[in-house]
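User:
I would dearly like some help making sense of a protein record. Take your time, and here it is.
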Amino acid sequence: MNEITSQPLASDQVASDQAAPKPVAAGTLDGFFRLTERGTSVGREVMAGATTFAAMAYIIAVNPAIMSNAGMDRADLVSATALAAIFGCVLMGLSANLPLAVAPAMGSNVIFTYVIVKQMGMPWQGALAMVAFTGVLFLVLSLSRLRERVARDVPEALKIGIQAAVGTLIVFIALRGAGFVVQSQSTYIAMGSLRNPAVLLTLAGLLFTPVLVALRVPGALILSIAALTLIGLFVPGANGKMVTSVPSAIMSWPRWPTSTFMALDVGYLFSHFVVTLPLLFYFLCAEFFSTLGTLIGVTGAANLRRPDGSIPNATAAFATDATATIVGPMLGTSVVTAYIESITGVQAGGRTGLTSLTVAGFFCLALLFWPVFVIIPPQATAPALVLVGVLMMQGLARIDMNELGNAVPIVLTLLVTVLTNNLINGMALGTLSYILLEVAMGRSAQIPAMVWGLGVVFILYAVVTAQIM
C-alpha cells in the first residue's frame, strides 16, 4: 500500500487526474483501461468483478424489500435496483477507470422509507424527487472539484483512520449478518452459539478462506463464496430451513419498472421545500462523506493512490456517484453510491474500470437470473468480507500511535464507526478531535482550511440529524 500524505497536487497533476483513461494502444482493452500499467489482466479483472458482485448481490433482494414498505411495487423495485446499478457501474468503469461498483445505497433506503415516507408522511414520489435534486447538488460539488480537494487535504491520520474504520465496520457487519455475532442483554453483543450449524459454517469459512488467499489460489474469495453457498444447501439454518435456499426458478424475466419510472413529484418538492431542506442537507452530507470514505478505502486497498495521497480520477468518480443518484430516482430507487464491497474485488486483483464493467454485466444477468444470485447467504460472503476488513487495517502500521494527535482521531473514528454502525459518526468524531488536539498543542496554523470546513459541516450535520432521526 502506498504511503499516504496530505500534500496538494501540482496543477498539471490535477488536470491529469481528472482526464478519462487515455488509451495506450487504441482499440484494445489493455490500452483503454491501462491493464498492463496497473499490473492486471482481463481475466483477473473479470474474476474481481465476479467477486465484487457476489459480495453485493444481496442488494437485488434487500433494497426492494425495504423500499416496498413505502408503498412502491416490489417487482418494479427489483428491476429499478438492477438497472440503477448497471448504469452506475458502466459510468464508473468508463469515466473514472476505477474498480468501484455502484448500486442503490443501504442506509439511505431505510431513511427514505421509514423516516421520510412512513414517519414524516411524504409521498414516495416526492421523496424520489428530493433524492434526485440531491444528486444535482452532488454533481455541482463534483464538477467544482470541492470533493477532490476534501479527499486531497484530509490529513494522513484521518485518512488511515477512515480506512481502518471501514475495514472494522465491514468485519462487524459481515459477522453480524452471518449470525456469528448476536445481541446479548448482558454484554450487548456476543458470539453466536456453536451449536448452530450456520455459525459453524461461518466459522469454517473464517478459518479456511485466509488459507486459500495465503496459498494464492486463483479466485480464492469467489471460490470460497461459491463453496460455502453450495454447502449451505445442506446446512440447517433459521426456522428449520437450510442456510442456502433453493431458488424458485433458474430464470425469471423482469419487467420494466413502469410504476416507478419517472414518477418523481417535483411539484411536491418545491411546494414543501422548507420541510425538505433539512432532508436535502442530510442526504447531501451522508452521501458526500460516505462516498469519500469508500473512495479512500478502496483506492488505498488497491494501491491506486499517488505517493502524495491523491486519488486518480477523483472528480470523475464523484461525478459518477452524483449522476447515478440523479438517474436512480428516475428509475424508482433511492440514493445510488459506490459500494464498500468493491474492496472484495480489489483483493481478488481488480485494479481498473473493467472490474466495474464486469459487475455491470453480472447485474444484467441478474435481471434474468436474479433468483439464483440472491440465494447467496451472508454465511458465504462473511469470511471474504472479514478478510478484506483485516487487510484494510494494515495502514495502521504506518502511523505513530504514540502521538495523541494521531492516535485519538484514529481510535475514535474506528470505534465510533463500529459501535454506532455509522461511518459518518466516526468521521465526525475523528475530525473534531483532530482539530481540538491540534489547537490545544499550538498547531492550529497547520490545520488545512478544508479540515476546518469539515468540522463545521459535521457539527451542522449532527444538528440536522438530531432533528430528523
